[in-house]
């Protein structure tokens, strides 16, 4: 029994382990697929198999190459003529690295560049491939956390790694290696220009000092200059290698081998003649040998050896002539195959070529049968040695990129016809009766369909690629054949949506009911779209993904389509199922031309998509600075944040896009003040982007560690002058929104109040405690009881007629009104007296024995978090009390917070500009006066008077400025922060929420303290916390804190997602916080 139970437990553990490993592997494959990287393993194997045994020894034994293989040389350039065998030698080097014993100290990667894929071989694509290889060859079973965290962050927005992130990841993952080997074959085929290719090399070499690079290329003056100081090994096919190659290949040629068996001396004649004429190019040797393989007798062979062409063009011309010398039908077949290989938008396999050719022979609605397929060997053999077939993948290539260039030059006129045939074949294939059953409803069914009909995926993805190059009248009937067949459209849509990854449910993740006009809009076919709309196709039709033709066209950068659809009346701001518009799609892919057309067409630049994602954020994720610039010039909001707390600027900073971040900063963007902003700063710091961090970090040295300065309350123009730093007389304007008093006598004014006289008979006045614009505060004592109080004396200056009395009346009104409720943290009114002789009012209140909070901050420099928490639980309680009774203070600052005893009991005072509004404030009842104290005033008070309406939130803002000061000793906003590097006035700082947490002053603070400040110093008053919410915050309650706000926002965003299936919901996870660097709050316990 015990043994049986034990076996069950062991079995359960094994199943758990197996499940864990399976999940781990599934996640790994998803990440590999997300990288979207080209894989070269299959190509490498095919190339290596073509290398003749025993060749390339001279190269591997070269001293420079040996030193590189040992990691002693950081860079080697291997130039050579076209066809010299550079690719084969690079494959030999890669094989040599793979034959080395596996070591934790080194890792090798490689890239085979392809002339036909130059547009796809961007720096990002190439580094993605290197990263994929590093992950695949790593000894770790699990994905490294650095990769996982970036995957999770990008997955939220459907984006991929930027070049900076890729470089940083590769540096991080390989930093402990002694050597990271990178082999780049055909650097000259890597990019459109040599300069772009060199940028890719520089980026790879910047990964780390342990990165050693070898690259091959043709000769180039640009490369010569750039690599002048680097090690160099020139590639030239060696005679011994050519001899070995020819010796082996002669036996592979049926006719030639027979001739040699009869006449053995002919073998050496062939070898000597070809070796002497091939000029160090393996390609010529191969083609020359191919030209001999068709000779029917030895005499013809010897004759041909005496007239071997000496250049590639001559050799290709001769090869073409041999093709044309074949029977007419075979010659036509060979030419068609060669032209298709040149025209094809993707690499074709032998089977795809068979289906392509067979489709052209079908009549009407005839189904495709196996009997229709031509023999694959006949197709390839007809091409006279100008093509090669990979053994494993069966992919067909022209033997060298120079063949493609030659064919494009010499057969240019025939390429149009070839494109027409290829397009017609695609359209016919998609409408085959073989697909009349419609879409496949399972992965197994789709797999079987792709095996039986291997040309389907190519046809679905490329049928419209060349239409713009073809005569409209000749191709349109074939297009109509597809677009008028709903079943064919559905089949094409499913195949078009397939990705290279074959994860679970791979064939079912596609939108249903896609209309023909949307399927068409992905291609450059503006004239066809116009025809379709005229023919009755609905321009706003969409499938289950709600994607219209305009959105599809914008996604794929089809500028002409977008312009045509807008002219036809397409809704420019239509949204898909993720609430994304055409502009957001174009921006995400960096399609500048499309963005410009959409903006000019009235597209909303600030429309928010899923998770509050904006077009500007999409442009940042694309890495295209021109797209970002275009949107900022069009009025994109720089400060919008996603539900995760990210902004366009923080995204640029996190992904290391310095130029884009600088552009956004120059336009006035500031970092978001939540965890996402601090995470972005942290990542930028750890990646060494110190210049960027310094640029975006406010320099607080002008105020940090300096004595805090008192500031006076200002109203109207006085406040504006103080905020903008203009030097005028410190005056108050009488235009207060309290009441509109006419010029009346002091006696008439006081008749409105039930106030006593005879202050000096009741109280004795002692020393002065403080002074304001219209008031002076003294300590006083009751002559009868001896109790000590404070008295505020209001006197009216001659220069001001009414303001002093208005302020006094407001304060008296409020304190009288609240006296019946009594709050321990609101200043307690004792008595009010008037003196008609001196035209003054005496307001007797409780005495703050420790003075005001300002003086204590100056003496202590700052408070601990525990002391600050004590103060603010009282202050926020007082503010909550005021707001519940309909009063907004409007002037909360340290000078107006009175400290009653050494235990830091406080009372809020100075209600001179307080205003009573409805508790449930409506817009038309909100105050509009420009008033407050410069460094403490809320941003909504600083807007233009025509838009200025504010409520209780101004007190939250001001109190939070005080909170900031209490914790560090200096203000978040100050006119002293204005510098050449940061030219922002105090008004601009406040309006944009431009503040920071400079190190070392904020390093000891708990993350929860920063979170509270971030959520109180929010520019948008609707997003700002209320007093009760502040009091319930974890920092105020001294409780453990997690970023529950981000969690809830993420849950809301995920809950709103509705893709084609529920898998995305299952994958959603909460991002982990990773903080800590200069100027950032670190994860640590709060100080005492």
Structure report:
There is one protein chain. This protein starts with a helix and ends in a 21-residue tail after the last helix. The radius of gyration is 39 Å and the shape is elongated. The protein is built from 50 helices and 19 strands. The strands form six sheets. Strands 9-13-14-12-11-10 form a six-stranded mixed β-sheet. Strands 2-3-4-1-5 form a five-stranded parallel β-sheet, with helices on both faces. Strands 6-7 form a two-stranded antiparallel sheet. α9 (194-205) links the parallel β3 and β4. α34 (648-654) runs parallel beside α36. The protein has 1088 residues and is an alpha/beta fold.
Which helices and strands appear, and what pairs or packs with what?
Blueprint: H1 2-35, H2 41-50, H3 57-60, H4 63-69, E1 75-79, H5 86-99, E2 106-112, H6 123-137, H7 145-155, H8 163-174, E3 179-185, H9 194-205, E4 211-217, H10 221-226, E5 231-232, H11 239-250, H12 254-262, H13 265-277, H14 282-292, H15 298-306, H16 312-324, H17 328-343, H18 350-360, H19 376-381, E6 387-389, E7 396-398, H20 401-410, H21 412-430, H22 443-452, H23 456-462, H24 472-483, H25 486-496, H26 516-521, H27 526-534, H28 549-555, H29 559-567, H30 582-588, H31 592-600, H32 615-622, H33 625-633, H34 648-654, H35 658-666, H36 675-686, H37 690-696, E8 714-715, H38 717-724, H39 746-750, E9 756-757, H40 759-762, E10 763-771, E11 775-782, E12 788-795, H41 803-819, E13 829-835, E14 840-845, H42 853-860, H43 865-884, E15 887-888, E16 897-899, E17 906-908, E18 915-916, E19 931-932, H44 953-968, H45 986-992, H46 1007-1016, H47 1027-1031, H48 1034-1037, H49 1044-1055, H50 1063-1067
Parallel strand pairs: 1-4, 1-5, 2-3, 3-4, 9-13
Antiparallel strand pairs: 6-7, 8-19, 10-11, 11-12, 12-14, 13-14, 15-18, 16-17
């Amino acid at each position: 029994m015990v043994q049986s139970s034990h076996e069950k437990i062991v079995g359960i553990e094994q199943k758990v382990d197996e499940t864990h490993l399976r999940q781990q592997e599934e996640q790994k494959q998803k990440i590999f697929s997300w990288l979207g990287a080209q894989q070269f393993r299959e190509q490498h194997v095919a190339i290596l198999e073509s290398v003749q045994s025993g060749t390339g020894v001279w190269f591997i034994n070269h001293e420079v190459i040996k030193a590189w293989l040992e990691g002693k040389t950081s860079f080697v350039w291997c130039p050579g003529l076209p066809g010299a065998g550079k690719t084969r030698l690079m494959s030999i080097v890669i094989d040599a690295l793979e034959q080395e014993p596996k070591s934790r100290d080194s890792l090798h990667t490689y890239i085979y560049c392809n002339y036909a894929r130059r547009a796809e071989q961007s720096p990002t694509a190439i580094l993605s491939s290197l990263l994929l290889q590093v992950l695949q060859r790593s000894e770790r079973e699990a994905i490294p956390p650095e990769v996982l965290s970036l995957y999770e962050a990008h997955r939220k927005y459907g984006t991929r790694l930027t070049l900076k992130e890729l470089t940083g990841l590769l540096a991080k993952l390989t930093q402990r290696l002694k050597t990271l080997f990178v082999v780049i074959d055909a650097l000259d085929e890597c990019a459109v220009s040599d300069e772009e290719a060199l940028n890719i090399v520089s980026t790879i070499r910047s990964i780390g000092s342990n990165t050693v690079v070898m690259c091959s290329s043709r000769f180039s003056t640009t490369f010569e200059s750039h690599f002048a100081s680097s090690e160099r090994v020139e590639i030239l096919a060696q005679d011994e290698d050519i001899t070995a190659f020819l010796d082996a290949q002669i036996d592979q040629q049926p006719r030639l081998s027979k001739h040699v068996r009869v006449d053995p001396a002919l073998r050496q004649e062939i070898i000597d003649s070809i070796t002497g004429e091939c000029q160090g190019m393996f390609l010529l040797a191969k083609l020359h040998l191919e030209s001999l393989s068709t000779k029917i007798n030895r005499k013809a062979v010897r004759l041909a050896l005496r007239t071997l062409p000496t250049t590639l063009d001559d050799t290709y011309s001769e090869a073409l002539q041999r093709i044309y010398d074949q029977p007419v039908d075979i010659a036509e077949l060979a030419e068609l195959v060669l032209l298709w290989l040149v025209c094809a938008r993707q690499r074709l396999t032998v089977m795809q070529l068979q289906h392509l050719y067979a489709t052209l022979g079908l009549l009407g609605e005839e189904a495709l049968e196996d009997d229709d397929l031509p023999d694959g060997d006949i197709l390839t053999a007809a091409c006279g040695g100008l093509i090669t077939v990979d053994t494993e993948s069966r992919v067909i290539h022209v033997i060298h990129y120079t063949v493609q260039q030659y064919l494009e030059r010499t057969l240019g006129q025939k390429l149009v016809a070839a494109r027409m045939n290829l397009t017609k074949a695609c359209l016919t294939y998609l409408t085959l009766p073989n697909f009349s059953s419609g879409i496949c409803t399972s992965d197994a069914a789709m797999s079987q369909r792709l095996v039986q009909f291997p040309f389907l995926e190519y046809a679905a993805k490329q049928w419209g690629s060349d239409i713009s190059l073809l005569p409209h009248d000749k191709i349109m009937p074939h297009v109509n054949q597809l677009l008028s067949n709903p079943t064919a459209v559905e089949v094409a849509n499913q195949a078009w949506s397939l990705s290279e990854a074959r994860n679970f449910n791979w064939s079912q993740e596609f939108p249903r009911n896609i209309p023909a006009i949307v399927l068409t809009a992905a291609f450059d076919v503006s004239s066809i779209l116009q025809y379709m709309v005229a023919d009755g196709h609905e321009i706003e039709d969409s499938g289950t993904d709600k994607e219209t033709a305009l959105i599809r066209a914008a996604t794929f950068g089809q500028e002409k389509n977008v312009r045509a659809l807008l002219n036809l009346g397409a809704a420019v701001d239509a949204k898909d199922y993720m609430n994304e518009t055409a502009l957001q799609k174009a921006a995400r892919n960096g399609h500048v031309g499309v963005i410009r057309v959409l903006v000019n067409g009235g597209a909303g630049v600030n429309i928010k998509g899923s998770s509050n994602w904006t077009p500007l954020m999409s442009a940042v994720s694309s890495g295209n600075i021109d797209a970002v610039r275009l949107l900022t010039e069009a009025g994109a909001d720089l400060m919008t944040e996603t539900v995760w707390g990210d902004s366009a600027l923080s995204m640029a900073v996190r992904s290391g896009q310095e130029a884009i971040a600088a552009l956004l900063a120059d336009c006035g963007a500031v970092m978001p003040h939540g965890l996402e902003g601090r995470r972005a700063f942290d990542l930028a710091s750890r990646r060494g982007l110190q210049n960027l961090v310094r640029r975006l970090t406010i320099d607080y040295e002008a105020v940090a560690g300096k004595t805090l300065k008192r500031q006076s309350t200002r109203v109207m123009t006085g406040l504006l002058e103080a905020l903008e730093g203009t030097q005028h007389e410190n005056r108050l304007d009488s235009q207060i929104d309290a009441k509109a008093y006419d010029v009346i006598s002091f006696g008439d004014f006081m008749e409105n109040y039930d106030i006593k006289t005879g202050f000096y008979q009741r109280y004795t006045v002692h020393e002065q405690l403080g002074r304001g614009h219209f008031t002076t505060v003294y300590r006083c004592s009751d002559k009868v009881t001896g109790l000590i109080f404070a008295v505020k004396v209001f006197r009216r200056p001659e220069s001001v007629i009414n303001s002093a009395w208005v302020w006094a009346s407001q304060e008296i009104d409020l304190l009288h009104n609240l006296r019946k409720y009594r709050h321990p943290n609101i200043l307690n009114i004792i008595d009010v007296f008037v003196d008609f002789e001196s035209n003054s009012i005496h307001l007797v209140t409780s005495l703050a024995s420790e003075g005001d909070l300002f003086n204590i901050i100056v003496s202590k420099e700052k408070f601990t978090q525990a002391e600050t928490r004590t103060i603010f639980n009282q202050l926020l309680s007082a503010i909550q009390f005021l707001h519940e009774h309909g009063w907004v203070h409007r002037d909360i600052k340290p000078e107006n917070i009175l400290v009653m005893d050494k235990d830091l009991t406080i009372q809020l005072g100075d209600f001179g500009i307080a205003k009573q509004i409805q508790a449930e404030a409506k817009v038309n009842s909100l105050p509009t006066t420009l008033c407050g104290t410069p460094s403490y005033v809320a941003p909504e008070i600083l807007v233009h008077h025509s838009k200025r309406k504010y409520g209780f939130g101004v007190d939250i803002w001001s109190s939070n400025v005080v909170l900031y000061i209490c914790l560090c000793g200096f203000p978040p906003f100050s006119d002293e922060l204005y510098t050449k590097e940061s030219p922002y006035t105090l008004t601009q700082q406040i309006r944009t929420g431009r503040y920071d947490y400079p190190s070392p002053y904020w390093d000891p603070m708990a993350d929860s303290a920063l979170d509270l400040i971030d959520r109180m110093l929010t520019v948008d008053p609707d997003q700002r916390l209320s007093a009760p919410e502040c009091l319930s915050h974890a920092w105020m309650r001294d409780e453990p804190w997690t970023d529950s706000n981000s969690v809830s926002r993420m849950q809301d965003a995920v809950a709103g997602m509705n893709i084609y299936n529920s898998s995305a919901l299952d994958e959603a996870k909460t991002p982990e916080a990773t903080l800590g660097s200069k100027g950032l709050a670190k994860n640590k316990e709060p100080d005492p």
